[in-house]
Design brief:
Elements (H helix, E strand, L loop, with lengths): L1 H9 L3 E6 L2 E5 L1 H7 L3 H6 L11 H12 L7 E7 L5 E13 L2 E10 L1 H23 L3 E6 L4 E4 L1 H6 L20 H14 L1 E10 L5 E10 L6 E8 L1 H68 L4 H28 L3 H18 L5 E5 L9 H22 L3 E9 L2 E8 L14 H12 L3 E6 L5 E8 L9
Parallel strand pairs: 11-12
Antiparallel strand pairs: 1-2, 1-5, 3-4, 4-5, 6-7, 6-10, 8-9, 9-10, 12-13, 13-15, 14-15
The structure holds adenosine-5'-diphosphate and magnesium ion (MG).
């Protein structure tokens, strides 16, 4: 018996002997657990160390156990410490003989930590359950082998099933070609306990596919049951498709607009060319013919009717001026030199022609411009021509600078004047020149920006993709 007490003194578990209502022995662990000293405990009734609610029960059971009544050996009780704290303990008791009289040997282990963990677990399980049952989200508990153990109603109705259809398997609800995705998620689950949310599809009972986003977590690390949260993406996918369709439509009409603009430009260009040829080859020739006729009439008059002869000379000079003027016009209408000289040199020549004693027009082409498509070269030339004409006609500037640069796959033209400027927001509706520039930009997939402030000059900036380039002579 002495050995027993020596052992009990060392134990972490509370050990005590109760006889009648009194403690006969308590070990140090019992004093630590209850907060009472050994002397205090030896003067107390044994039921006084348990929670007031349980005192009557413990008192009754204690006496019954000493009297030899059969009783479960292990029971949980709430201890009530000297400081007034409640402590869950696992109690074990057995009837013994103490100094020739019946008594009870008891032990108690503190299980409060376990109780707390259990309680926390119960609370979080409760929260999870409420989330599952609320059916806000489709949730299912399943195993990794394909069995669905517990789907919620939201999950079932998302796929057109009812509880009568249970049991179901998630692998059977997954399109065959998506099973490898599920395998990847399972591998991830086994290693980390959670699968990164991913998109997949389920098969609806009626055969159509339901696009979803799912997140999965193992319920227990190393186990094979998991909880899966499912978000139905049907509406989002539908919206995405509608958006794509209208974007495609938009692109198509943009493309159509582009083609219209290009055709418009081509038609106008052909018209100008025809006009240019007509002017040059027919009108000018005929006028030159008229001029020759005039000269011959004057010649035939000889020394007679000198006043008439003078008028004839004047008419001839006037005619020659008109012809010259028309020739210039014809040349601009069909800028043949563009083909031979290329854009850079053609613009330089244009600038020189436009220059006058009152307005200096300078072209800056810092680096050679590669040969571009006919349509690009002609359009850019036309934009420069129009911008220059506008500057001269409306702005009356002292200087105009034309800059042409090709870099980063784009062609940039800038025509800057220091003339009177204007408010681009107030430009007239029938401003055909500016509209024409915009149309050309549209046809080439480029853009034109006109910046101007009354009194502070005007800058026309045009740019477009270089498009096809070639070094081949034309
Ligand atoms: N460089 C410029 N300086 C001053 N005003 C300009 C300039 N370019 C355009 N404008 C103004 O914008 C208007 C529209 O130009 P445009 O479309 O070429 O038509 P138009 O030259 O036939 O008048 C012009 O009438 C003029 O008032
Ligand atoms: Mg104009």
């Amino acid at each position: 018996m002495a050995d027993f007490y020596a052992l009990a003194e060392l134990m972490e578990v509370a050990v005590f002997v109760v006889q009648g209502a009194e403690f006969r022995y308590v070990n140090p662990a019992a004093t630590r657990m209850t907060g009472y000293t050994r002397d205090e405990l030896l003067r107390m009734k044994f039921w006084e160390v348990v929670h007031p609610d349980e005192r009557a029960l413990v008192r009754e059971r204690g006496f019954a156990r000493q009297a030899g009544v059969d009783m479960p050996q292990h029971l949980p009780y709430r201890l009530y410490t000297k400081a007034g704290e409640t402590l869950w303990v696992a109690f074990s008791g057995t009837r013994i003989d103490h100094e020739g009289e019946p008594a009870m040997l008891g032990t108690a282990i503190d299980i409060s930590r376990h109780k707390q963990v259990e309680e926390a677990l119960r609370r979080s399980e409760g929260r999870l359950r409420r989330l599952v049952d609320s059916n806000v989200l489709a949730v299912l508990i399943s195993d990794l082998n394909g069995r669905i153990l517990e789907p919620n109603d939201a999950f079932l109705s998302m796929l057109g099933y009812t509880r009568a259809d249970l049991p179901l398997r998630w692998d059977a609800l997954t399109p065959r070609e998506l099973l490898p995705t599920a395998d990847r998620a399972i591998t991830e689950l086994r290693t980390t306990g959670v699968a990164t949310p991913f998109e997949k599809e389920y098969l609806h009972r009626d055969g159509h596919r339901v696009p979803v986003l799912i997140g999965i977590a193992l319920l227990e690390h190393g186990g094979d049951e998991c909880i899966t949260f499912v978000i139905d993406l049907t509406k989002r996918k539908r919206a995405e498709r509608a958006l794509e369709a209208s974007l495609a439509e938009l692109r198509a009409s943009e493309e159509k607009l582009h083609r219209f603009a290009a055709r418009e430009v081509a038609v106008r260009e052909a018209e100008r060319k025809r006009l240019g040829f007509d002017l040059h080859d027919n009108v000018c020739q005929e006028l030159t013919g008229v001029g020759m006729l005039l000269a011959s009439v004057r010649h035939r008059l000889g020394a007679r009717q000198t006043s008439l002869a003078t008028d004839l000379v004047r008419a001839g000079d006037f005619l020659a001026e008109i012809v010259e003027h028309l020739r210039v016009m014809a040349r601009e209408l069909r800028p043949l030199q563009l083909r031979d000289l290329g854009l850079g040199e053609s613009l330089t020549a244009l600038a020189t022609r436009m220059s006058s004693p009152t307005t200096s027009v300078v072209a800056r082409v810092p680096a050679p411009i590669p040969r571009l498509g006919d349509d690009v070269e002609l359009s850019v030339y036309r934009v420069a021509q129009e911008a220059l004409a506008n500057a001269l006609r409306h702005g009356h500037p002292r200087s105009i600078v034309v800059t042409l640069v090709a870099d980063d796959g784009r062609l940039r033209l800038e025509v800057r004047d220091d003339g009177c400027g204007f408010d681009p927001a107030l430009r007239p509706r029938d401003a055909l020149g500016l509209t024409g520039m915009e149309e050309r930009a549209l046809a080439l997939g480029g853009r034109v920006v006109v910046k101007s402030t009354p009194g502070a000059g005007t800058t026309v900036a045009f740019d477009c993709p270089l498009g096809r380039t070639s070094d081949a002579p034309r």
